[in-house]
């Protein structure tokens, strides 16, 4: 499972005088977000049940920094729109007071989630990921959305690598594209290096047993 942050949502619903506030940390369905992801309704059902049973809640951080807790979440629930959270900023710490003043002035108005992906469906033709089950770790107050370059590329690469590894464990043969993705993800090969290796091991350019040898080697790695 991987951890990544969602795009900031400009939807703070209410801000109380003493630092209480409410907003949507995530919304369901619609068009893919800036990462090419769609969160399905019900994705948080399981993860929200566990904290209620334990009497705990996801953490509230400033800008996804675990070194800077700024309060606590009091409630989190799903409705038709998305994940609605209500929390209390800690006005006894400097960063909590700063977050309150920035929210009150409208200088920041974003919430962003940190989560582990536990279930998803992939539309490979359009490179759209529908996240069906998430393990919610924290909800942060943020000034801008999460970095959508290396972090998200890395997460999707890891998800892809996990899929391919599971296919190998099942004893299934990889397609040329899957073989290339595996080599790039597991061994940090360049595109050209991965393509060349795929030609040798899957298309039999070389010794006749190259394809079988390459597959057996990768199955051994996955085992």
From TrEMBL:
It comes from the Bacteria. Pfam families: Peptidase_S78. Residues 13-157 form the Prohead serine protease domain. GO terms for biological process: proteolysis. InterPro entries: Peptidase_S78_dom (IPR054613), Prohead_protease (IPR006433). The keyword Hydrolase applies. NCBIfam families: proheadase_HK97 (TIGR01543). This is Prohead serine protease domain-containing protein. It comes from Paracoccus laeviglucosivorans. The lineage of its organism: Bacteria, Pseudomonadati, Pseudomonadota, Alphaproteobacteria, Rhodobacterales.
């Amino acid at each position: 499972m991987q951890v990544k942050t969602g795009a900031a949502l400009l939807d703070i619903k209410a801000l109380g005088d003493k630092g209480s506030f409410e907003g949507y940390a995530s919304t369901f369905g619609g068009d893919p977000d800036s990462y090419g992801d769609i969160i399905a309704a019900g994705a948080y059902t399981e993860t929200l049940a566990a904290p209620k049973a334990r009497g705990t809640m996801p953490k509230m951080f400033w800008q996804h920094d675990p070194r800077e807790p700024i309060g606590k979440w009091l409630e989190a629930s799903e409705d038709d729109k998305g994940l609605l959270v209500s929390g209390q900023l800690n006005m006894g710490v400097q960063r909590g007071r700063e977050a309150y003043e920035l929210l009150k002035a409208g200088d920041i108005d974003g919430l962003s989630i940190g989560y582990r992906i536990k279930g998803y469906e992939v539309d490979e033709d359009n490179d759209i990921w529908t996240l069906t089950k998430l393990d919610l770790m924290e909800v942060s107050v943020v000034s801008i959305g999460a970095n959508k370059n290396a972090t998200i590329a890395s997460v999707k690469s890891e998800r892809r690598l996990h899929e391919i590894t599971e296919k190998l464990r099942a004893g299934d043969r990889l397609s040329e594209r899957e073989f290339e993705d595996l080599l790039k993800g597991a061994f940090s090969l360049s595109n050209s290096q991965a393509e060349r290796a795929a030609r040798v091991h899957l298309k039999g350019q070389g010794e006749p047993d190259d394809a079988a040898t390459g597959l057996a080697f990768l199955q051994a790695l996955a085992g």
